[in-house]
Amino acid sequence: MESARRSPKCSAGCGIAKVEAKEAVSDGPVSEKAVSEMQVSLSDRLSFGQRIALLVIPKLAALLLAVIGATLRFEVIAEEGAVPETPPGSGIYCFWHRCTLPCGWYFRKFHCSILISRSFDGELIAQTLQLLGYTSVRGSSSRGGAASLLALQSLVERGVLVVFTADGPRGPIYQTKIGPVKLAQMTGQAMGSFYLLPERAWVMRSWDRFLIPKPFSRVAVSWARKVAAPPAGADSETLEATRQQLNAALERARERAEEHFRLH
Length: 264
Hints:
This protein is an alpha/beta fold.
């Protein structure tokens, strides 16, 4: 990894069950039996090394994030017309994948639910975030995404804050997927955007140049104006135009955070 100064929810131990999309659309909460069956199904697909990793890595990652997070100094900024969300929060929000770690710590009190892929890497992330107080819907907003979006719709309608890593899980960087726009269309909820930038961070050599905040760093919490939901009967061209508006809002949030440290 390379070192860089700038670059272009509840405490650990909360036992919040992960929710697969097909279960989350039910009228009531997911049963312990259903959760157990999901975990057994995943376990059947894992190698011995992956099972060991799942026992160790999420706990270590959550602990490391808590240790570093406790030293970070957050500075909230917002463009004109943007209203920063406060806990517990509700609605639909998006951020770029590279700032997942500072977001994971800052938003732990918001009791967010986040869409996470069913991959092994997704399982590592889901278990880590669970320890910080988050819930997760497992699936994709693109591949077989109807069930996942229905699950997220149910959460939004119950007043839960739903969050997308807009360019995740594999990029391309700074290009949002259509999933948040479709969820906004289904719920009528506007989409918010934010970006968290540590002033000092380790930058990973990954597709997204993933950020690991250095201890005692300042972190800009940058908010952009919300993007209105497309009409229920919007055609593909309207959905794409809305996606581009959301992409522009996310980029404004990122650029404002970078400008913040250039000026202060």
